[in-house]
Amino acid sequence: MRCSPSALKNEAQRLYQRLNKLGWTLDDCELIAPTTLEIKQLKTEQHAVILAHSYQTPDIMYGVGDFIGDSYSLSVTATTHPAQKIIFCSDYFMGETAKLLNPDKEVLVPRVAGCSLADSITGEQVRAPRKKYPHAGIVCYVNSYAEVKAESDASCTSSNVVEVVEAMPQQEIVFIPDKLMGLNLRTMTSKKIIIWDGICVVHEGFGEETVRDIRRRFPGVKILAHPECAPGVVALVDYAGGTSGMLNYVRASAAAIFMLVTECGLTDRFKAEFPDKQIVGTCILCPYMKKIQLVDVLQALRNPAPEQYIKIPDDIADRAQASLQRMFELEQEGKTLVKRGAGEAVS
Ligand code: SF4
Question: Which domain holds residue 247?
Fold first, then answer.
């Protein structure tokens, strides 16, 4: 695409205003401006919307993303957006959730990437605990493929997992696929939790010593962790919850220093969105999410390959949608059973 020098200059300035808080220079922005301009033009021509998961790189989140968030909230956002085409910068299973909630829209992912957690279980494998624990209910974390949701009684997100599990009619719950979140649930709910052996390679990577070290070095720091972290880590932090819960916590807090025990993209997002707060400590990159680059977004708009389109067989889609629908119902019932204090503060 040919762009006029003035259009490129304006685009580089727009990018710089959004990205300089994260250390990007004007030269960096000039380099990506031709690509972001072409993406914006193709998106407009095709009436598409670009959803960017919070673990994407800043050039995707702030350069071309129309909405930034976690996979579930973005999928819900898309249901009320007029665009008929969704480019979801995320893993394939997240694109599937968007397709389940937007069955009449075209959903594409810029790159077909895996995930250590979602890849730990297939739909077929869910049948084994179903047989072994016939009296148990099966709850599946939304970070799973549609075929796994289809075999589960209900889905859940990191924000509503406690309410969903509490509202399940069974006392025994098989929680799939996240082992560490399942272990955390044992202390957060009254149910007997049977776990699966899946892990998120990002959140598994944080140890208790990292949290203790940050507390020693930064007096007054508030530490926030994702519930996909190990219980020993979660027990040491000030708040455990998903992306929206973390955002709300920081927004409402008078503290000046925070550490996020999660993926680096979210750390970037907090640095950009809370310029008055200091974000300290380390983060871990997701090797799957970071496979997606700007050029992949451009390619998905220019010349998408068949595998980039999310396709879910009808029988799986119907049952996976039922599992998500059950989540909505249980979340509402669970709210009356679970009285949360100020968010989900752990200590
Ligand atoms: S951070 Fe990466 S590995 Fe962990 S659940 Fe998300 S996509 Fe999977």
Answer: 203-285
